[in-house]
Structures are given as structure tokens and as C-alpha cells.
Design a protein that fits this description.
Helices cover about 40% and strands about 15% of the residues. With about 240 residues, it is an alpha/beta fold. The protein has one domain: Decaprenyl diphosphate synthase-like (Undecaprenyl pyrophosphate synthetase, 3-Layer(aba) Sandwich). It has a six-stranded parallel beta sheet, sandwiched between helices. Strand 3, helix 4 and strand 4 form a beta-alpha-beta unit. Bound molecules: 3-methylbut-3-enyl trihydrogen diphosphate (2 copies) and magnesium ion.
Length: about 240
């Protein structure tokens, strides 16, 4: 036990929708983008908390395919901010044994320089196994399924794959990170009760935990509280107890 958490029944994978940055800033009379900047401390406190208890997979929603609809200034800020966060933190994450990865569409409006830094960071940390920290960036669950269907259709057309044999595993193999276990827990902050196109396929059986805490105020104790809540749930996966 640590922090009331049963360490022998840890979730393998916690996925987080980091929401509420704009409201956090507005309540303080600050710019929305100040809220994004303040979210960095929350993220790294949660990562440290995860490392402290031995959480192997943590995935965070950093930028959705729908977030391109925001005002250009905010979109530009988020691109630059995510890039600078990566450059400032990657050596530290690497030294702590964190493997950093990205899921999402690598292209479209994402600046090439940002993509290059993403690839460099993935390569730098590729051998680490203590924790895999995945950023969902330019990520949409529907886009991920569209991309999977396209890849499967291409294989079927070139006769590498028999359409009659397509099953759930085929789809799973074509997701952005086929080796990633499904999230056991999906946490959303800021008092919104939706998943906003996050891990649409992967979260089919995730335990949902909602908290009113705004993302910049989130700390490892909030992560621990979510894990304790998960440990009090009974997961049935369609069976009976
Ligand atoms: C989450 O905070 C961060 C991103 C979506 C990039 P928001 O920016 O959505 O904050 P609210 O929901 O407007 O408060
Ligand atoms: C979800 O938050 C996306 C991220 C946290 C990156 P949003 O704030 O964009 O979601 P909606 O628009 O409230 O559903
Ligand atoms: Mg929001």
C-alpha cells in the first residue's frame, strides 16, 4: 500500500484528458494560454507520481484533431508550447527511464519542425521501460480508426489480407500504438462528462473517473485518488460476478 493504493493491483495504463486550462486562467484574469503554460507543472507532477508508484503506462491528451478549430493564436501557442516542453523536459524524462511516444496524425497542419522534435524524442527515449508516457497530439479517435481502415483496405487490395479474416485483432494491429495496453482508467478533469474523441477503440472498457479539478491544479494526489477509485470498482467485462 502507498497513498491508500493497493500496489499489487495497479492499473497498467491510465489515460488523462487534461482539461480546464482556459477556465483556470480566466478565473484568475489571465490569458487562456497562461492556463496551458500552468498545466505543465500538473503534468510533470502526475508523471512523478506515476513513477513513484510504478505506473507503467500514462497517456495524456495534449491536442485533439478538433482543437484546430480554436483561434489561430491559441493553436500556434499550443504547437510552440508542446514543442518547447518536449525540448526542455526530454533529457530529464530520459534519465528517469521514461519512454516518450506520440499517437496522432503526423502531418496535416503540424509544423514540420515539431514533427522532427517528436521523432527525435521518441528515438532518444525508445529503450526506456520504466514508464511509457504517450502524448495524444493531433489525435482523434475517429481519425485513428479512419487511418486503420485505410491501411487495412490497402492491404486487402494488394491481397496481403483476406477481408473475410478481418477481426478485432486486425483493427487493433493497425492502431497508432498496437503494443499499448488498453487504458484501465480514463480520467477527465474540469467537470466535463465526455471523452471528446479520445481513445475511441481503446477505452471501450475503461473505468471513467471524472473530477472537477481544473487541469493546472491537478497533482499526483489527484492521480492517486483516481487510482483508488478505480480499485474500488468492479470490472465485469460483460460477465457476471
Ligand atoms: C485543455 O484545456 C487543453 C487543450 C484542449 C489543449 P482547455 O483549453 O480546453 O480549457 P477549457 O476547457 O477551455 O477551460
Ligand atoms: C479535449 O479537450 C482535448 C484535450 C484535452 C487536448 P477539449 O476542451 O478540446 O474538449 P471539448 O471541446 O470540451 O469536448
Ligand atoms: Mg476544454
Amino acid at each position: 500500500m502507498a497513498h491508500g493504493i493497493d500496489l499489487s493491483h495497479l492499473p497498467r495504463h491510465v489515460a488523462v484528458v487534461m482539461d480546464g486550462n482556459g477556465r483556470w486562467a480566466q478565473r484568475r484574469g489571465l490569458k487562456r494560454t497562461d492556463g496551458h503554460a500552468a498545466g505543465e507543472e500538473a503534468l510533470f507532477d502526475a508523471v512523478e507520481g506515476g513513477l513513484e508508484i510504478g505506473l507503467p503506462w500514462l497517456t495524456v491528451y495534449a491536442f485533439s484533431t478538433e482543437n484546430w478549430r480554436r483561434p489561430l493564436d491559441e493553436v500556434r501557442f499550443l504547437m510552440r508550447f508542446n514543442e518547447s516542453l518536449l525540448l526542455r523536459r526530454r533529457d530529464d524524462l530520459n534519465e528517469r527511464g521514461v519512454r516518450v511516444r506520440f499517437i496522432g496524425r503526423r502531418g496535416g497542419r503540424v509544423p514540420r519542425r515539431v514533427l522532427r522534435h517528436i521523432e527525435e524524442t521518441e528515438a532518444l527515449t525508445a529503450k526506456n521501460r520504466r514508464m511509457t508516457l504517450t502524448f495524444a497530439f493531433n489525435y482523434g479517435g475517429r481519425a485513428e480508426l479512419v487511418d486503420a481502415v485505410r491501411a487495412i483496405a490497402a492491404e486487402a487490395r494488394s491481397r496481403k489480407l483476406d477481408p473475410a479474416k478481418i477481426d478485432e485483432r486486425t483493427i487493433h494491429r493497425h492502431l497508432y500504438a498496437p503494443d499499448m495496453p488498453d487504458p484501465d482508467v480514463l480520467v477527465r478533469t474540469s467537470g466535463e462528462y465526455r471523452t471528446s474523441n479520445y481513445l475511441l477503440w481503446e477505452a471501450a472498457y475503461s473505468e471513467l473517473v471524472f473530477t472537477d479539478v481544473l487541469w493546472p491544479d491537478f497533482r499526483r494526489d489527484d492521480l492517486f485518488a483516481a487510482i483508488r477509485e478505480f480499485q474500488n470498482r468492479s470490472r465485469r467485462f460483460g460477465t457476471i460476478e
